[in-house]
Design goal:
The complex is a heterodimer of chains A (197) and B (309).
Chain A: H1 9-17, H2 21-41, H3 47-65, H4 75-91, H5 105-108, H6 115-130, H7 133-143, H8 147-161, H9 165-191
Chain B: H1 7-17, H2 23-35, H3 37-56, H4 61-70, H5 75-96, H6 109-112, H7 116-124, H8 169-196, E1 198-204, E2 215-218, E3 225-232, E4 239-245, E5 251-258, E6 261-263, E7 266-274, E8 281-290, E9 297-307
Parallel strand pairs in B: 1-3, 2-9
Antiparallel strand pairs in B: 3-7, 4-5, 4-8, 6-7, 8-9
Helix pairs in contact in B: 1-3, 2-3, 3-5, 5-8, 7-8
């Protein structure tokens, strides 16, 4: 084992991702998300577990390599590890679908029909309030109306904000991603409570 | 970052999402997506916009089928579809100055007969071209990717144990909590969606819109798709075309190459429409049939009314 990275495999990987610890944590999660996405496109079963396994294995390898690892950004190395893990996952038994007619307990004790959707809508309202007013208006304005009207409005929004159309698209993507993550977390919390208060 | 959104790269990303890239190019792109955050963000933009086009009904039949087959393959991605629908519902509520949400008609026997995610997956994956309910959702991989050169690791081993006092423990714990919350959210959304996001309506030919004889359907806030079961007087054609006609008589959506199926004693054509196409109002499905590539012949009109959300 290398003496240069004594804090363990996870530290070795974080150290390679960014010198600053917080930034490295963010990059770790981003890298994990990217791996999950690629595993999903490959229809691998359990993509999140595969992404974790990939990062664990890459971290261990980087730790073992220590100073002998000559690459700068380890993401490409991690990508190579991912393929091997993907191939392994193909050889594992596939998930077996439940038979037709099987009814889950959750279904048998179903909530009133629209409760889940109402909860999600309430969470969306709540998460929108967490955005800055300008961002909130931007997201809602961007998605409002019929398709033809939206296209015209978006061109106007880009002009008003002094952004290129592509810069506006990226900004909207980032805002809606944050919003979606907020809603998912809110719904998860609400699911643990009897009612969203 | 926005430099990544070049027309050529966007076209490649779009083909990737729709499952149309050759294997070598696919591998090359996936390596870029993992190692280049800007490229991955561009993929997110393209995915969002394809979902938007899907909800708008702006994709052609083959693209719709490809998106369902290649992208809407997991609960997380279906959650993205629901989120996009919820966001546009929210803009509608805001524009109308109202917050009322009417109750959805629960999905019928198909959602009751399967686990929650299966029912939803089946409804969304319902092929407009082939008209086959997907009773199960395959989780087997499509193709085996080529080996990468970089890996030199050993077989899978246990996850590394954090070193006591490891300052990374907090980051890992936070990541684990985020994942746990995300998993709980997914489960919750799967259940919620199965109950409210696929609405089914059976229609008989000959209902008259003008006579107020329309079947009624109420779409809840979380409705993503509407399944229409069009009963045929007789299955005399091999292939059908369906057009969604609004109250002004304009065609706003069409589906072709629909095949009739037997359901009990009935011959039916099944159709799945994005709920986003159906703001409150009166509609008709104009069905026409053709045999052996011949000219389409009118085969029935099915009127229905969508009540306010």
């Amino acid at each position: 084992m290398s003496e240069a990275l004594p804090d363990g495999p996870f530290e070795a990987l974080l150290g390679r991702l960014a010198p600053d610890r917080d930034a490295a944590g963010v990059r770790y999660e981003e890298l994990r998300l990217r791996l999950v996405s690629v595993f999903e496109y490959r229809r691998c079963p359990h993509p999140e577990e595969l992404a974790d396994e990939t990062l664990d294995r890459a971290a261990r390898k980087l730790w073992e390599l220590g100073d002998r690892f000559s690459g700068g950004d380890p993401a490409r190395y991690v990508f190579g590890v991912a393929w091997n893990i993907a191939r392994e996952s193909f050889r594992r038994p596939a998930a077996v679908s439940l038979p037709n007619g099987f009814e889950t307990r959750a279904h048998a004790n179903a909530e009133p029909p629209d409760e889940g959707a109402e909860r999600a809508a309430a969470c969306l309202d709540r998460c929108l309030q967490h955005l800055a007013a300008g961002d909130r208006d931007l997201v809602l304005g961007y998605h409002e109306g019929a398709r033809g009207a939206r296209i015209d409005r978006r061109a106007g929004l880009a002009r008003e904000l002094g952004l290129t159309p592509n810069a506006l698209r990226l900004r909207i993507h980032r805002l809606t991603t944050r919003l979606r993550q907020c809603v998912e977390a809110c719904v998860a919390r609400a699911a643990l409570e009897p009612r969203l208060t | 970052m926005s430099g990544r959104l070049s027309p050529d790269f966007e076209r490649t990303l779009r083909r990737y999402v729709l499952g149309g890239l050759d294997e070598p190019l696919r591998i090359e792109l996936e390596e870029t997506l993992v190692s280049d955050p800007g490229a991955f963000e561009a993929l997110g933009v393209v995915e969002d916009e394809l979902v938007e086009e899907y909800l708008d009904g702006a994709l052609d039949v083959s693209e719709r089928a490809a998106l369902e087959r290649s992208f809407l393959t997991s609960a997380a991605r279906e959650a993205r579809l629901r989120f996009a629908q919820a966001l546009r519902d929210r803009t509608r509520r805001g524009a109308a100055g109202e917050a009322s949400r009417s109750a959805a008609i629960p999905a019928s026997r198909s959602t009751r007969a399967h686990p929650a995610w299966l029912a939803v997956a089946a409804a969304l994956a319902f092929s407009l071209a082939g008209n086959v309910w997907l009773a199960t959702r395959g989780v087997r991989p499509e193709g085996v990717p080529l080996p990468a050169a970089a890996e030199a690791g050993s077989p899978v081993a246990a996850a590394p144990t954090p070193v006591p006092g490891d300052s990374g423990a907090l980051a890992r714990e936070q990541a684990a909590r985020t994942r746990a919350e995300s998993n709980a959210a997914r489960l919750e959304l799967e259940l919620a969606r199965a109950r409210s996001s696929v609405v089914t309506l059976a229609l008989s030919a000959g209902r008259l819109r003008a006579a107020g004889d329309s079947a009624r359907i109420t779409l809840g806030a979380g409705a993503v798709a509407v399944r229409l079961r069009l009963e045929l007087a007789s299955a005399e054609y091999a292939s059908y075309r369906a057009a969604l006609v609004d109250q002004d008589g304009g065609e706003i959506w069409t589906a072709t190459r629909l095949e009739p199926v037997r359901e009990g004693d009935d011959s039916v054509v099944n159709l799945v429409l994005p709920a986003g196409l159906l703001p409150p109002g009166d509609y008709e499905i104009a069905l026409s049939g053709s045999q052996g590539g011949g000219e389409p012949v009118p085969a029935g009109r099915y009127a229905f009314r969508v009540a306010g959300r």
